[in-house]
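Let's practice the habit of predicting before peeking. Look at the sequence and jot down your guess about where helices and strands might fall. Then scroll down.
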Amino acid sequence: MSKVIKGMMIDEIRQSVGECRDVIVIDMSKLDGKSDNKFRLEMQKKGINLLQVKNSLAKRAFADAGFTALDKSLLGPSTLVWGADDIVALSKEITRWLKDIKTLEIKGGSAGGQAIDAAGVESLSKSPGRAELLSIISGQILAPGAKLSSQLLAMGGKVASQVKQIADKEGDAAPAA
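Done guessing? Here is the structure:
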């Protein structure tokens, strides 16, 4: 392969992945054509990108950008996967497909520029995603206010109940007199 073609391929990898540092490396080489097409189409529907790469060119493209976290994962047939909402959503989607397609293999990846192995990708898939974490945090932020509000309303309700009881007693006593 000529240097010009290699340079074009390196540029294509750089442009495709861009500044994304949440990437998973998988081995799709053992997939049959039907499974491969189904997998690619489903990933495309979810906005997840796949790119089969030549390892040496991918390493060079990432090294030029100062991103070397994938070097250990780029061995043998490699496909780069990126593009979900966050790395947790991406890892959940890939591990879900692992159950359906037994020949699919996770080789490793990168979360925010930090290298992770296949076990790390699988453990990420079991953790809460960005949206789940935001809802947990907002619930924790709003909880004290909700508790205070309910306590104030409860006290107000008690006072209103007592005033009503006094009014009822006075109302019952007034006609009798």
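How did you do? The longest strand covers residues 105-111.
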